[in-house]
């Protein structure tokens, strides 16, 4: 079967870009993969890893003649990159992105998309704390959601082709309004990252407990947070700069609830604590049933399952 | 070789008690394992699982003639159980516990320990979010820390024997002052759990994002929190009731730092955000180097490593 796209151009070849490259190659989704990134060092590394067929520092050159262009750069860079490549986009091409925030990306990219080119924003909800072209792996998107957030006038056929692309990468695709996307992700991803950064930062600044004690005796809860807090600072800076309202809304609620828990601790209100701790259990059960998590105990190392 | 203990009595046979039972049996650390728990249902289940040699609902009967008694019950139950078993403790016996808080446990158990019995509190820093006798596994303590927090007048020989027991279970043993223990664990374990409960609770109460959206699109950060927030509510209620001061101290710092981050988000201060996100990375690197974590990406399912 002929690949569905002739030329796939990836602009930005970090964790997400390189994972798309590897997966698209394995699933034969493009006849040719063209890669562009800002720095020579990253471009050289992408070439060494054999992630694509051609390599350019100039994003516009890379985008020329492509029928699918995906921006895999931090959210704040999407507007400038769209502006850069705009003059070279082929009529009928699909331009997409993978940004973790959608409304701001739509706002910054839309004005640059030429007539006759189809802009279809998307966000694969899949990632790790690693970044750069070495971090990618072809299975990253398997059984993960990819949210497509069409904009006014998005071409139905272009949406369908991009959805088919992500489905072929292994994702479950769903459409969502960009504003709603940003709200949902604010609570399921952005706020948890902010909290993790804050927790690890708090531990870092204590005078009463030493750094080496924190590191040595870091229990499960803290270890998980250090993983999130090891994520790329540029990517996350851009997320918070570009999803301010939804993050502040969730953060306000979080702080309110935390004040109530703090009060229960201060007054030794065991009943309130028990009630607060009891009602959260079933959410996890539901997530496991939804197939987005395994129930296996995992406290920072892999526990062999019976029969594994 | 003869097992180092003749009779090991475990009072409480949930995650920690059953893991000790399985590991002690495998490593031949006791000639006989005696089990006691409060409810008939749990005792029956322990018997079905073959976790011990004898089973009692009466903790005092179970403790009789044991040379090592370990309380594996919630922190708040340690005092009452110590009082219950006190009259039956054999002279020279070692009494220990596994509570996640130490100063309060020392305060509540010490008065009940008879002359000639050695009280040596301990805390294995190992756990999962599961509880009950089915949750245990013999490898739980391998390569994990076990902190022993001797009290005034703790017998050096008894400390050494308990340390050897935990070393045989696979743990790295270290001594620490109970007050210091509670401070360290407040930041590495107790606060992270409180935060996780609070985060999942916040998501649960939102009106602007539905439960099913939270469950469906729960990204890595949130999924980790749901794991912590699925932990046993009784155990955690008791932790917060019994480590109030240290938890409130850490929580105060956490909230202060969070207010600063919130301000940076509100004012779009990218530099402040970047700086806050940058400095937390190396802590994880150090934890990995300390052998308490693997660098493998793990976003809720096991990713095969090359060569695995
Ligand atoms: N990481 C995740 O978990 C995850 C998950 C879903 C979506 N996303 C989204 O995916 C996108 C990329 O993330 P990633 O994790 O793949 O990042 P990454 O590994 O750090 O790679 C970023 C790529 O973008 C380039 N870049 C960085 N700043 C740029 C700028 N100002 N202008 C132009 N190019 C720039 C980098 O180029 P050089 O290396 O050449 O400087 C690199 O090729 C982001 O929008 C993020 O929100 C991330
Ligand atoms: N879970 C962890 O991650 C972890 C890690 C390190 C240390 N710890 C500490 O280990 C201890 C036990 O935790 P766990 O996870 O093993 O708990 P678990 O699985 O919930 O088991 C608790 C055991 O204690 C018994 N119990 C509960 N309430 C009691 C009461 N009021 N009086 C007497 N017995 C009572 C239960 O008896 P029935 O089932 O018969 O009611 C059960 O046998 C706690 O002190 C905890 O702080 C836990």
Descriptive account of the structure:
Two copies of one chain form a homodimer. The first copy, chain A, is an alpha/beta fold and 308 residues long. Chain A has helices at 15-26, 40-48, 59-63, 78-85, 103-109, 156-168, 178-205, 211-216, 220-228, 233-242, 244-266, 270-278, 281-289, and strands at residues 5-11, 30-36, 54-56, 68-71, 94-97, 118-119, 122-124, 145-148, 172-175. A six-stranded parallel β-sheet of chain A has the order 3-2-1-4-5-6, with helices on both faces. The first copy, chain A, has a three-stranded mixed β-sheet with strand order 7-8-9, covered by helices on one side. In chain A, helix 4 (78-85) runs parallel beside helix 5 (103-109) and helix 7 (178-205) crosses helix 11 (244-266). The longest helix of chain A has 28 residues, at 178-205. Chains A and B meet through helix 7, helix 8, helix 9, helix 10 and helix 11 of A and helix 7, helix 8, helix 9, helix 10 and helix 11 of B. The complex binds NADP nicotinamide-adenine-dinucleotide phosphate (NAP) (2 copies). Residues 12-17, 37-39, 42, 72-75, 77, 81, 98-100, 124, 127, 131-132, 232, 234-235 of chain A line the site of one NADP nicotinamide-adenine-dinucleotide phosphate (NAP).
């Amino acid at each position: 079967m002929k690949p569905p796209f002739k030329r796939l151009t990836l602009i930005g070849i970090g964790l997400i870009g390189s994972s798309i490259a590897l997966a698209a190659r394995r699933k034969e989704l493009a006849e040719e993969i063209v890669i562009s990134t800002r720095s020579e060092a990253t471009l050289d590394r992408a070439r060494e890893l054999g992630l694509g067929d051609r390599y350019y520092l100039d994003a516009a050159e890379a985008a020329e003649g492509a029928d699918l262009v995906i921006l895999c750069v931090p959210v704040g860079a999407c507007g400038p990159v769209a502006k850069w490549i705009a003059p070279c986009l082929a009529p009928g091409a699909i331009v997409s992105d993978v940004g973790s925030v959608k409304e701001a990306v739509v706002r910054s990219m839309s004005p640059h998309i030429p007539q006759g080119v189809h802009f279809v924003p998307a966000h694969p909800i899949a990632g790790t704390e690693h970044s750069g072209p070495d971090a990618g792996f072809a299975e990253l998107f398997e059984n993960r959601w990819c949210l497509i957030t069409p904009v006014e006038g998005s071409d139905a056929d272009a949406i369908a082709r991009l959805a088919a692309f992500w489905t072929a990468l292994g994702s479950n695709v769903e459409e969502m309004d960009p504003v709603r996307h940003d709200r949902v992700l604010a609570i399921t991803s952005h706020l948890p990252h902010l909290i993790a950064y804050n927790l690890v930062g708090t531990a870092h600044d204590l005078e009463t407990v030493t750094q080496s004690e924190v590191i040595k005796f870091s229990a499960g809860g803290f270890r998980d947070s250090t993983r999130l807090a090891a994520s790329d600072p540029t990517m996350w800076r851009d997320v918070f700069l570009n999803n301010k309202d939804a993050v502040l809304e969730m953060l306000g609620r979080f702080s309110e609830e935390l004040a109530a828990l703090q009060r229960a601790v201060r007054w030794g209100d065991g009943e309130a604590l028990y009630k607060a701790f009891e009602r959260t259990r079933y959410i996890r059960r539901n997530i496991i049933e939804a197939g987005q998590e395994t129930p296996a105990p995992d406290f920072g190392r892999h526990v062999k399952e019976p029969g594994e």
